[in-house]
Specification:
The chain has 8 helices and 11 strands. The chain is an alpha/beta fold. The protein has one domain: Spore Coat Polysaccharide Biosynthesis Protein SpsA, Chain A (Alpha-Beta Complex), CATH 3.90.550.10. The strands form 3 sheets. It has a 7-stranded mixed β-sheet with strand order 5-4-1-6-10-7-11, with helices on both faces. It has a two-stranded antiparallel sheet with strand order 2-3. The chain starts with a strand and ends in a 5-residue tail after the last helix. The mean pLDDT is about 90.
């Protein structure tokens, strides 16, 4: 039987929203929601939290996750996320804890549902290297995105179109889910350029990645009103 392990990566440092991974979200630490949904999903065998923060690890244990102490040198805001993934895989390899699939459930996306996890794992079974979550985007580089240049702005893309209908559909990468084979994680430096990347589509309303105070409050409002919005997150 295929063994799927869930991993939640949560650094202690957060510049824009201090201690966001354990900031109370609807009365519980934000990381609680990723641990909870992973533990309830029938496809997940074990749940791990990787962090450089003793406070985060302590809280994660309280809610039933196993913990991995992550070195500080791969826990800065400039550290590659993939190095953290590899560290977790290697940590379990040294312990001779063998598993098949690596399922990353970031704690900054508390609006995911269990079906997102199950759908990604199911698609991963079809021998794909990695499955990610995406959502349709509203802004197009070729149409209505600009960049600052001194006191003016200019188009982000030189390939300008006069209407959105002429553009190909584009999507944002979410932090809802990443499901990959263990061997794939061990051997990559960038999953987009080295892997066979498949996707599941997430509705924009559930795809918020909490990076700022505004993101946090908006996600909390959506979570508290999920019945009205018919989202069935919990």
């Amino acid at each position: 039987m295929t063994k799927n392990y869930a991993f939640i990566f949560a650094r202690g440092g957060s510049k824009e929203l201090k201690n966001k991974n354990i900031k109370l979200f609807n009365g519980k630490p934000l990381i609680y929601y990723s641990i909870k949904i992973a533990k309830k999903n029938r496809h997940i065998k074990k749940v791990f939290v990787s962090s450089d923060s003793l406070a985060i690890l302590r809280i994660s244990k309280k809610y039933g996750a196993e913990t991995i102490k992550r070195p500080k040198n791969i826990s800065t805001d400039r550290s590659s996320e993939i190095n953290s993934w590899k560290h977790a895989v290697n940590y379990l390899t040294k312990k001779k804890d063998v598993f098949d699939n690596f399922v990353n459930i970031p704690c900054t996306s508390p609006l995911r549902i269990s079906k997102d996890i199950s759908q990604a794992i199911s698609l991963k079974k079809k021998k794909k290297d990695i499955v990610v979550g995406v959502c349709k985007r509203k802004k197009y580089p070729e149409f209505n995105m600009v960049k600052k240049k001194k006191n003016t702005v200019e188009p982000l893309s030189k390939n300008l179109f006069h209407n959105r209908q002429s553009l190909p559909k584009t999507f944002d990468l979410t932090t809802i889910i990443y499901a990959a084979s263990v061997d794939f994680i061990r051997n990559i430096n960038s999953f987009f350029w080295e892997g066979n990347v498949k996707y599941i589509e997430i509705p924009p309303i559930r795809s918020i990645d909490i990076d700022s105070y505004d993101d946090f409050k908006l996600a909390e409002i959506i979570y508290k009103n999920q019945k009205i919005l018919k989202l069935n997150i919990t």
